[in-house]
Structure formats: C-alpha cells, structure tokens
Amino acid sequence: MTFPPVAPPSRVLMGPGPSDVPPSVLRALSAPTVGHLDPAFLSVMDEVREMLRTVFGTANELTMPMSGTGSAGMETCVVNLVEPGDRVLVGVHGVFGTRLAEVARRAGAEVETVEAPWGRPLDPDDFRRVAKAGYDVLCVVHAETSTGVLTDLAPFAAIARETDALLLVDAVTSLGGVPVEADRHGLDAVYSGTQKCLSCPPGLSPITLSDRARQKLASRRSPVRSWYLDLNLIARYWGGERAYHHTAPVNMIYALHEALRLVLDEGLEQRYRRHRDHADALARGLEAMGLVLPVPEGSRLPPLTLVQAPDGVDEAAVRRHLLEQFGLEIGGGLGELKGKAWRIGLMGSSATTRHVTLCLAALADALHAQGFTPRGDALAAARARLGRK
Is 167 helix (H, G, I), strand (E, B) or coil? Predict the structure, then answer.
C-alpha cells in the first residue's frame, strides 16, 4: 500500500490555538537538522533562553522551553514543586484550573480549590480567606483558555507572599499577548505554550522558575515523580554542563527562536497594544451584530473572546459553515460551555485587521444560514474602533 504526501488545507486559524504561523517561522522549521549537542545548536538554545526571559519579564536562570505542549509545562511545574503530602490551593474558574488541580492530586498533594463561576475572574478575597490556612503552593490561571477570562496576578502574588507559599501560574494563552511580568509580580513558576500568542507550531512549553522555586526543588524530600520532566536533570542540559538528557526537538527550537525574534522585533508594548486594539474591535463588531459576550469587559482576555451562541442557533453548524465556506477555524465551548459558546482567538499573527473583518463577515453569513439576522453593521463598528473607514 502506498500513501500520498500530506497536503493539509490552508486555514485561517482563529480558534483557541494554534494561531497562524508566520512564513519565516515555517522556514525555520525546515532548516537542516543538526545534533542536539552540536555547538551551533547550543548557541541557538542560549539565545532562546535569553529571549524567553525578556518575554516572561524575568531574570530567572531556570527559563527554557520544555519538550511538549502547554500541558507538559503544567506537569513540569507541578511535579517539580509538589511532593506527596504538600498542601496545594488551586483557583478554578474553567477547564484549566480544574486540570491543574487534577495534576496536583496525581503528584500526591492534598488539594483544595477556590471556585468562581465560569466566565468570571477569581475573587482575591475569597482566595485569601482559604489561603490563610497554610499551603505550600498556590495555583492560578492567568489566562483561562476555556472562558476568555484574564486574571490580575498582583493580588494573588501578594497573597502568596503573605502566606509564604509559592505561586504557580498558567500563562499558556497570555505569554506574548498580554504582559506576564514574572519578576515584577514575584511569580515563582510560570508555564506557557508556543502555539498561542507566540505564533509558533505546537510542541514546546516555555517555563520559568524563580530562585525560591529552585530552592524548593533543591530541598525536596523525595525524587521528582517524572524522570522525563525532572528539572534537576534537564537544567544540566540547558545550562553550562550540557549533560545529555533527551534528544531535544531541534527544528522546533529553531522555529521558537524565529518566533521569539519576531516578538521582540515588533516590541512587547506594541504587540500587547495590537492584541488589545483588535480584540476591542472584534468585541464591538460582535456586539453590533447583537451577540452577547459573557465575560465582563474589564476581565476579558484580549487574545481570546468568548461569544454566547444565540438561542436556536446550532453553534457546531456555524463552526462547520465557517470552516467549509471560508476556511476559517474558531473554537467551540469547553466543559460547562460546550454547545453554548464560541471561542474566537486573536493571537500573535492572527491578531490583525484582516482576521477581525473576515471573522465578522463570515460569522454574519453563517448566522444568516441559521436564520439569525445580525442587527447592526459589525464591520463599521470594528473599523471605527481601529480608526479605519
């Protein structure tokens, strides 16, 4: 039996990830593969670490991309910082807070949660009341990918300091799209993914650990439960010793190098502003159509917008229409929001005027096909926000 070469269709990616990948990043993927201990590759690794520090907003020595997607970064931070019997408090207001709690339980922790309704941020006062009981690690989701809620990290960092706990943060859908500022906030462990606002293919998970987190790692009473994700071992490959641990995904690191170079070439403040401006334009267009955005304006995550599906509209049929008629991908709801909402991403290279206007026009067409008539001029509303006629 023979098989034809893979010929994937061309898509416009506006779901919860991956985002559109720039041509230069794709070219970097196709560069010649070298050995993972080749001196030329080791210099690329050093540059990736330095660029990641800038994007995370940190001077942490232990900053690097893990081989694996964002969930691998989650497991890395948890299994290295949590030992059996440790007390862990997790803020839950969506799928990924729930996942953090489950990973911590599997690491042997005694886990408690503080919950908020999906589509709303955690209440710091509620979190503080529980945290005062004493925990080793506090966990919060900066950018909840399942709901499009952005959490202000400052009050949670203050709670961690007040209670002498480590603060572990999910920044999978925020890194490169909104400020993380790990050192300014005093975050102890942060993980992300390459396929969101960095606009690199999925496959790597950038992480950073503070000196406090490294001290916890160095003073563990038991071995890290995952050999593959043990930072005591991996840090010796990414650091000066260059001790072999596993075969690094060489070409993916080439791609991340180029993606980070593009981020820094644009400038972080300009990039954050671009995400905010286009998210605001999309929101105005959606609301002009008569659609409801469940997340309050002050808590919306610019790279990801949650949209309530109108009554009588088959949300899955709308997504199929967009994909089949326009080659446009948006995401459906997860968990409590499954079948009830769409998640529209404006991440990295997908945060452009072209993406906003295409999405609004295509969505209006798909809704018409479902018998829902948008009530206003979505494109005019979006263009007005962007200062375009």
Answer: strand
